[in-house]
């Protein structure tokens, strides 16, 4: 008999292939597995973009094939209070939040974990591509072994208590292997496309969605010299580094009058004047940042790492960037060896030591390239 035979694990079944294979792997290992489907959003949920009903049907079909029970739980009220309200606050303040980070910390590994414990579970499991390692009584969050799917960035706010009760069964696998297992065991969602939408917005048009919840005041789009190039629909609807949807694609730049085909990018939001500042060219100096300041900090170990040399990500799909960590007050500063592109307030700066995710914070401010000494002095 397996050593896990009487250990109950509640698996978050989303309807996707990763969580489905996770549940199957745990059952193969001898755990007593129970599936749980989380409904986190109710507004217009019957729309074509985000119907949780379809996902629940897929999750239930998976549970049937694997031979486990599944429960449907509604966390929509918690989601609105803990995640969506903060999401809107950040957008109104001109920042660009990452709701998936908050969703993991507040819903998937808090409300879900609490509910699972009430069901008598010893552990919970999800289909995230990450790993947990126990060392000397402490729990470490590690990157998933598939570098193209690693999701530790979104999990950096998890604490010792949460990690001690969490399993990531597919974190040791590559996505191709997960798909192969799903097909071999006949899972009905083996070929289902990965979700690319934000955790509660789904695949619906983002600006159209925000428009229902945020008041907006149109204003001028200007280049860095103050020349008016067009009109924005409201500062909340734009993020630093954005290229699409500006409506100024054919406007020539002042510095390079013949460069009408060089794309424009959002460089800054001037909240006081309600102006969107844009620059021309991906490598424009106004899009290059040497340092950042972060607050609302969370460390996996419960305490900050020692100041020194680390690697960091300022956005999810980004290679690790070497940097120097400095601690101060309730936050931290990072000074990068090489300039980082479009560092965006509201996004997460996440720190790594090799494959260990140490935690991170929310980017509060960023310093443009002026040399390391100047970057350090402005933080």
Strands, total number:
17
Q: Number of folding domains?
A: 3
Mean pLDDT: 88
Morphology: globular
Query: Percent helix among the residues?
Result: 10-25%
Topology of helices and strands:
Layout: E1 8-12, H1 17-28, E2 32-39, H2 52-66, E3 69-74, H3 76-92, H4 99-118, E4 123-125, E5 130-135, E6 138-143, H5 160-164, E7 166-167, H6 175-184, H7 206-211, E8 219-223, E9 228-232, E10 264-270, E11 275-280, E12 288-299, E13 308-313, E14 321-328, E15 331-341, E16 348-353, E17 356-368, H8 372-377
Parallel strand pairs: 1-2, 1-4, 2-3, 4-7, 8-11
Antiparallel strand pairs: 5-6, 6-17, 8-9, 10-11, 12-15, 12-17, 13-14, 13-16, 14-15, 16-17
Helix pairs in contact: 1-2, 1-6, 3-4
Task: Give descriptors for this structure.
379 residues; alpha/beta; Rossmann fold; SH3 type barrels; Elongation Factor Tu (Ef-tu), domain 3; 3 domains; 6-stranded antiparallel barrel; 8 helices; 17 strands; 24% helix; 30% strand
């Amino acid at each position: 008999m397996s050593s896990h035979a009487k250990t109950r694990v509640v698996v978050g079944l989303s309807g996707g292939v990763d969580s489905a294979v996770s549940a199957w792997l745990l059952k193969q290992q001898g755990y007593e597995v129970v599936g749980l489907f989380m409904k986190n959003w109710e507004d217009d949920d019957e729309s074509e973009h985000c119907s949780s009903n379809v996902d629940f049907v897929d999750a239930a079909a998976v549970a049937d094939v694997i031979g486990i029970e599944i429960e449907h739980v509604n966390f929509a009220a918690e989601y609105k209070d803990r995640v969506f309200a903060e999401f809107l606050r950040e957008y109104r303040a001109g920042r660009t939040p990452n709701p998936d980070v908050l969703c993991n910390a507040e819903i998937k590994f808090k409300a879900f974990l609490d509910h699972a414990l009430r069901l008598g579970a010893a552990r919970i499991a999800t289909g995230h591509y990450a790993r947990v390692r126990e060392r000397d009584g402490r729990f470490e969050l590690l990157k998933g072994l598939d570098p193209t799917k690693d999701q530790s960035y979104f999990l950096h706010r998890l604490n010792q208590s949460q990690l001690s009760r969490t399993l990531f069964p597919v974190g040791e696998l590559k996505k191709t292997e997960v798909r192969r297992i799903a097909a071999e065991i006949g899972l009905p969602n083996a070929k289902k496309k990965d979700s690319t939408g934000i955790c509660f917005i789904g695949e619906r048009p983002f600006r159209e969605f925000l428009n229902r919840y945020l008041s907006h005041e149109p204003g001028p789009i200007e280049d860095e010299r103050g020349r008016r190039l067009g009109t924005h629909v409201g500062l909340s609807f734009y993020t630093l580094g954005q290229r699409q949807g500006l409506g100024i694609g054919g406007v020539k730049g002042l510095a390079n009058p013949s460069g009408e085909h060089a794309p424009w990018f959002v460089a800054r939001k001037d909240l006081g004047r309600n102006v969107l500042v844009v620059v021309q060219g991906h490598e424009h100096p106004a899009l290059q940042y040497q340092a950042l300041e972060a607050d609302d900090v969370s460390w996996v170990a419960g305490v900050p790492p020692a100041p020194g040399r680390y690697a960091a990500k300022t956005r999810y799909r980004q290679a690790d960037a070497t940097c120097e960590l400095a601690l101060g007050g309730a936050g931290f500063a990072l000074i990068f060896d090489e300039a980082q592109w479009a560092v965006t307030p509201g996004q997460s700066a996440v720190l790594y030591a090799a494959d260990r995710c140490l935690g991170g914070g929310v980017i509060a401010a960023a310093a443009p390239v002026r040399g390391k000494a100047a970057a350090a002095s402005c933080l």
